[in-house]
Amino acid sequence: MTQYEKNLRTLSKHYSSFDRLIELGREKLEESLTLKEEIADDGNIVLKIEKDNRVCYLNGKRNTTDAAKIWVKSLGELKQNTTVLMFGTGNPSYLEELVKQTKNRIIIIVYEPSFQIFLKFLEMVDLEYWMEKHSIVFWVGELEGMDYKNLSGIVRQTMKYEMLIYLKHFVLPNYELLFKKESVEFIRMCRDIAVEETVQYNTNMIFSKVIVKNLLVNVKHLCTGYKTTQLLDVISPGMPGILVAAGPSLNRNIKELKRAKGKAFIVAVDTAIKPLLSEGIVPDMFAIIDGMKPLDLFEAEGAQDIPMMTALDAASEVLDYHTGKKFFYNEGYEFAERIFRESGKMSGGVASGGSVATNAFSLLYMLGINTIILVGQDLAYTNNKSHADGTFHEVMEEHDTSRFMMVEGNTEEKVPTTTGFKIFLDWYKNYIAGCKQHKEDRGETFRVINATEGGAKIEGTEIMTLRQAIDDVCTEEFDITERIQSLKPMLDEEKRVWAEKYLTDISEEFHKLALLAGKVKNMYKKLERLCSRKKIDHREYLDILDKLNKNIEEIKAMSVYQLISITMVNASYILRSEQYLSEKTLQKEGQEIARKGILYMENVKSIAEAFEEYAEEIFGKKECAG
Amino acid sequence: MREEIKNLFECVRDDTAAYLIYQDRTIIEKTKKNMPQIQKFVLWFLEDNGFGIEDELYRDMCRNLLNILQDIACAMEQCDIVLMNDALAYGLIEYLKLFLEPEEGGDTI
Lengths: 626, 109
Hints:
The structure holds two protein chains of two kinds. By secondary structure, chain A is of the alpha/beta class. Chain A has 23 helices and 18 strands. Chain B is mainly α. Chain B is globular. The chains are: A alpha/beta, B mainly alpha.
């Protein structure tokens, strides 16, 4: 059996059918480069690649191992489950040294853009021991089904925020030259995932302080609220949707929107309400999801009654101020999901792209609208402004954008934008592509017209003026307002009474949770005592861990625990990152588990007690039986 | 000449260390700047065997040094950082060390 065949067998043991995929690829192989072998001074084979009129070595001919040894040494001690992203296999010494020198089991994701080089790699190495010692994923660019989209899904699973500080990435020398486009895409993909994870963490950190307050205060609105899926009864076939965002270009064509009233389902983002109302335009709905949105953005005559699409964790001051119909979607908050289930209405969420506009865009798509017009969706600092005049201020201040990143514009060649906006631009690009594909599979079409008349270009959209878009698409009259007004709340009278009682009982749930957290804390103390002894009774140790697991599972199953874990977002991140660190002895490991467990449960207990009091204040105290 | 060799050695040592340890991939640009000194050293070495090296060994060393110089030129032309590091860190630097004191990182003849 050749080395190549042996490696195919190893790969198929870890990833079923990978061997067949490789063999199939080999049959269809079209050479895109010339691969030459040379014998180095130390007797090892080194590869020399000829590609695009360039000849480059992938390994040194005088010394084939030092560079890899030094690189691995420079990484320091890699913790258990650390992810190493490698680009290229043409110099196997890097992977070999990484495998050899790393004691802890790590995850290595290797992307090889050239199938030809990968085949040669399989002839040069013995993967059996490598793949047993570590978790290694090979991704080969030219193989069927192994495209970037799928790779990013795998990378995303390993690039969790709590592990980012341990993450390592490496592009093999000369790969950046021979595979310039692919290596840039690889690094960009890793960077984008890292940025998204960091933004998500920061958002969670900022909002964790207000989310639970908003959730507890807002949940009462479910008793009289509506489900976004009820809007399916409002939408007629062929009805276009208009999403009005609050970008600086909104001032250019806002007046034009009057002509679209009654001819399209107009959904505005929260910040666009004031400028719209001051122009005498009342949207059919507005959306708010921000947990910290200032109330004064809505304090305008007529704003209170406009139907609202909202999230349970949105700013409670705004929801309390608003008196019109409130439409909620499924967000996965277990204590609220019970009410949704009780309503019997169709379940339905919206995709969150991170901004209120992306959420609203997703809603329009979910409602089956086939043509969406974007207005004021700049995602850039058009004329150096962040928002339209009349939103946060009558006249928005201009920013110095000389150091901003530049992206392609709708009407200008380049426009300044921020990392945050760039994330939304990428979200739109991917989401629109997905929507189009989905519609195409069903024999339908999906159009997105960007009528922003400024700002950044969104891939997958048609650029048009708003006037032209309205003339082209908004040609039929619809009685949207009347249809929305005729909708009934999701809970009938009987279910509403049930929901109010259910909410009153929530304080009792927090009380039970606090008691259980106290019990688990005592178990951790017992573990701490056991581990401080010189000799540990292994059976007793495992017995305590088993009981702890059962009780922790019980805590996690409680619907209100989710609210506690949101508040403790930072503690959770720290715990999750520390779980990858291992101690040298069982005593030390047990003591460490106990120390963290005690701290965590103390927090759970005190927060549950505080929430119990808070819930009583909001929903009233449960009357004691008898 | 000794001072010039010492300076060149320090430059090459630092450039290759940056490549190997910090993955600094600007070794081609850096070597371009050192090229006049490299050429001067090679010419000086090839000029005459005034080092007391056995003749046959000296001839082999000269051939090897010319190969190294050729690899440096080729690496520069192709922007090949692997070949450049190999030629410098495991080729040229060994020659430079021969003319330095041990405390300077040398391996005096």
